[in-house]
TrEMBL record:
Keyword Signal included in the entry's annotation: yes
Keyword terms, alphabetized: Signal
Cleavable signal peptide: 1-26
Pfam families according to UniProt: VWA_2
Organism: Rossellomorea vietnamensis
Signal keyword on record: yes
Protein name: VWA domain-containing protein
Limits of the VWFA domain: 74-324
Amino acid sequence: MKKRFSAAVIFTIIFSFMIHTSLADASGQPSIEFSVQPSASEYVKPQNGDAQGRLDIELTPRGQATNEERKPIDVVFVHDTSGSMKDTYGGVKKATSAESALKESLKFFEQNKQSDDKYYFVPFDSDVSYKSLGNRRVEPAEGISNIKSIAENLDYSKCFFFCLSEYDFSEGGTNYTQSLDYALSKFSGMRDSKRYIIFLTDGEPTSLKYQNKDYTLYSDGTTAMIGNRYEDYNRVQNIIQDHAVLSAEKLGRNDVTMFSVAFAQPGEVNYQLLETMSNKTGGRAIQANPNSLANVFTDISKEFNSPSVDGEIQIDLSKFNGKVKLAPNSDAYIKNNVVHMKYNFTYPIGGAPTPGNMQLSLPLQFTERGQYVFDNIKLIHKDFDGNTMPAVTHKNVTINIVDEAAPIFESVVKINGNQHHAPENLVKMGMQNNGHNELSIEYDLTPSGVLQSNRTGTMRNIRIVQPMPEGISLKSQQLQTSINGSLTGASVQAKTLNGQKVIEIRLGREINYTGGQFNPAKLNLKAILQADFAMSLVKMPRATIHYEDTNFSSQSHTLTSHSGYISLQVILEGMADDTTYIGDHTGKLTKKKDSTNEVQAEATPKSLPVKGLELISGNTIRVHFSDDSFKDVYLKADFDIFETNTGKKLANNEETTGPASFKVSKKVGGEDVKYFYKTTSGQGDNGWKEFQPDEPVPLPADSIGNVEIQVKTEGGFTLNQQPVTKKIVIVKKVSEINVSPNPIEVNAGESISFQIEVLPLDASDKSVTISLQEDNGKVASYSGDGQGNHRILGVEPGEDSLVIEANDGSGVRVIVPVTVIDPYVALEEVRFKQTKINLPLNDKDIPIEAFLIFNPSNATNKELAETVSSAPAIEAVEKDGKWYIRTEELGFTTVTVTADEDNSITDSAVFEVVTPEEGGDDNPYIDGRW
């Protein structure tokens, strides 16, 4: 025994534990860190069997890709068209959902393809499919356009004879092997490209053609005749599955990476088989449901379209001369005594590599006891251009195979979904944490050891430390179990160890053993977890179990990694018939039509995992993210109305003088959204017109009065065709008021009319308020009949102002001076226009006023009291109150006039009467000369 303990001590000194090796070169290229360690410090060889050991391998990609150039890609869609694809899943025919997902992938590749990319389509059922009906067909195709044509027929079916008979393109069994072998033949051996397969199936393989024999499994548990006899069902099933794995292995050997998509309810497809097949190529298997299938296809397509680093871990077993063997359940394959484990990492431009971490397990068998030093573990990889880089050799890893060692725990770690969803298809409903986003991690623990028959001991202080990925949290501190007694004293709690979030499960009980018998012989513990936000293809890190053994002191070893992945989408339902909104790990929001699973719109408001979806005001989806921020995606457009000249924003139903415009303030989410508007006013309806949401839209220039603006959208995240409606009132306000006459003069006791002109002529409200600044009636008074007839009455002499103001709030007003004049004007002066006047001799009566000037000219009394001539040459006569002069003879005279107003107001002028010949014309007076 002393010798064994000594060996154990030596082992603890020399065996390799976590060793990191980086591929980073001097140029700063993306790198891969990898570590290799045994799952336990020692493994025991049974007397009549091989020791079972395991190497745990962890790969972590580092860095980013910044160059968008990638190698050409060859992509083959291997698509299940078997009879079960006509069944419904989530209320939709499987073939319909698969068709929609394929179309989304083709759409992506069409938008992002390079000229030298190649695309193939391989449908399969019991063999590679060749089906046709009329001009419709489902068969292998090459090129995106041809594949799109075939895709249109994938869910096609037709009734005959009143649906007593039906033809459906989904028919037949499920043959993995022939379809994958056919897909492999599509890759050119000499072509320098990245090679990918997307393998979609909804069921386990049931058909195989091998060595001229047909192997077929039926759903009733029987097999088809092979040769002339029936075979055992399990044997035929194993043969079919083994050949499927061999086909995948061939893909891996030919550098083809396969992503398998299990599109079925949990239990309907052998996910473990698909995972093994995909792992052998460096790809992965993914469980999908109707809500996630389109996203799964698109995400895989994006990975193919990105630069990638692929390669393999190589472990040379030659030096062990057959003493170390690859276990039959391995994801690796062996060639020339070298183990090959494939891997592939995608580097989205400027983003984090996918997957973020890869955990590989290599089960080994050891035929003899002793120490095994693995000194030839290499990491092989190709750069973005496909060039094989120099191999990186890992530090030595040592494994001891002994007669006796501390007991260990054989483990099976499982990730379970909930009653609604598998762990790959978890759902968070809106903002709620409930049963839909619940999951559990389950540990089946079996204490095991090869011990001397009389060896007794106790394993105590047993605890499991489970690191937690971001976004996974402990939901309940109550453990569950499927084995009675497993929970006695057990507890679980969340904590942080060395900066890492973990859950720690303490078993709270001891395990006693005698020889190889343990009590209890098996434990089962299940911790209830919760996925907090959207995630994709997340793996739980390996857990470590720690315990103390009364014979072997403190012990620890890693548990197995779980199969499958954890994925979650956030879903918002119930907003519209046949529509579901889905938020994912990239921050993308998708609008999906439920009846066909067709993607109708996508938007990525922020590149962070979606944590919740919330409906706001019935027309907005608030997308919450993992950092507790949020962004709004609008389902209805909104717009602001504003005055074109001032930029003033107008409220609904607000008045404005215009001109006015509107502009979209909230755009509907998604691409290819079309915007339409319509205005309605007293001038009519202008009909729906398309417009650009980034530009302001002026309202028609003739819009006046109540104007209604409606905006609707089509495409993208548009909720419905109901428009958003707003109203404003455009008023033509008064800009000018003109009054005639201006100013106004009126005699006291008299009235005068005046006119008012309100501009513009089409002003919305042309009414005015008319007032006098003085009390109405003191100096003047105003009267109007309401028909546009206005008058001012002079009351008494004085000054006033007529105020005319627009009633429309424009503030326009005019003030017109009003003068009321006393009607009597005193005469101040009368004078002759000239001092010497010549008149011809004739018999005419000439009015004396023709020769006079009255000052002021508007004097009230301009009558003359008398007119007197000093000589007989002119005679003054009065007729009808007016004075006239008449020439009587040649000669001179002085004529004097006296005003009736005041006899002191007089004037005189000299008149000479001359012959008509001297007068020269009929002018009644001529300036004379002495």
